[in-house]
Structure formats: C-alpha cells, structure tokens
Amino acid sequence: MGAGTPVTRVTATDADDPVYGNSAKLVYSILEGQPYFSIDPNSATVKIALHGMDREMREEYLVVIQAKDMGGHMGGLSGTTTVTVTLTDVNDNPPKFSKSLYEFVIPEDLAIGKAGGKVKANDRDIGENGKSTYNIIEGDERGIVRLDARFPPPPRPPPRTFTHNLAVARAAESIKDGETTATASESVCLAKAPSNGLWR
Known about the structure:
This protein has no helices and twelve strands. By secondary structure, the chain is mainly β.
C-alpha cells in the first residue's frame, strides 16, 4: 500500500449542543504515529503517510489520535484513543539458501531412499508466502538424486577422496500470484567404500 491509502476511520462524540457555537465541532489530530500515518482533521480517516512500509522491518504500530472540540481552538476539550495497526505479509522476499554451494560425501553403496545430505532455503515472509518447495533443475539427467523434505540431517561422514557430479537445486515459493526462486549448487560426491565395510 502506498502513501495516502486509507487504513481506518475513527469516531468521537460530544454531548454539547451542536447548534451552539463550536462547542461540539471536533477536529482530529495524531499525537503519536507520525511520520507513518496521518489523519484527516474533519473526516477522521487514518491514512498511510510513508511509502514503502515493510512488515519484515516492523509489523505493528500504535497510533494515538486526539479529538478536540471548539474546532480545535484554544480552550477546547479533548479526548484520545489508540489505534493498533498491524501490517499483513505480502510475498516480497525470495527464498535464499544459506550456502551457494553444498558438498556431500556419500558411500557408493548408499541404499536407495537413504538421506545423503540436506539443503535449506530461508524466506523472511510468513505463512503461505514463506513456504518453499524444492526441485532439481540441472545436473541430474539420470535421475539419481531425489529431494525429500521428510529426511532429518544425515551424520557428517569423514573426508574421503571422491569424484563429483554437479547438480543445481532450486527453492520456489508456493504462491498463487507468481513464483520467486533461489538457486544453489549441490556437489554430490561418491566415496569408495572399503572392502571390510568400515570407515576409518
């Protein structure tokens, strides 16, 4: 939402006789909440005053509004109320991998379906906007690697001499109005298993 967008409208009442002078004529102003919000002094419509407000930077604002009778002039009586404004999330952040390159060492006899490594992308958005799905977009033409969100992180194996096959993983948000993506390289390393089946 941009500057000038209406947020809400408040209403105050005055028991004085509206036909007698300005005793019941109310004028509205903001005591706290600037420069983020403004208020129309006559209609009491609260509007956004600052462009580019970001939920990831600040989610909640307290706006203190004053209503003053006598048309706002000196000697008028006033009352206040507080409006809590909470920003809702929009999908404005792509998922980001914690690393640009992941390297995993796995034995050549690793059973099919066993976890060989884990990649992770983080998204600053929340709810459905922050949920990411993963798929391989390059480097696994033979279909050897499968991404599965159910596996826990595997134990770290000892370093070994290996050959590698490069694959690129992509994290994409599950959203209705578009798709934002992030990529990271994954080096899948095949380690030679010893004849006795034990690692040293």
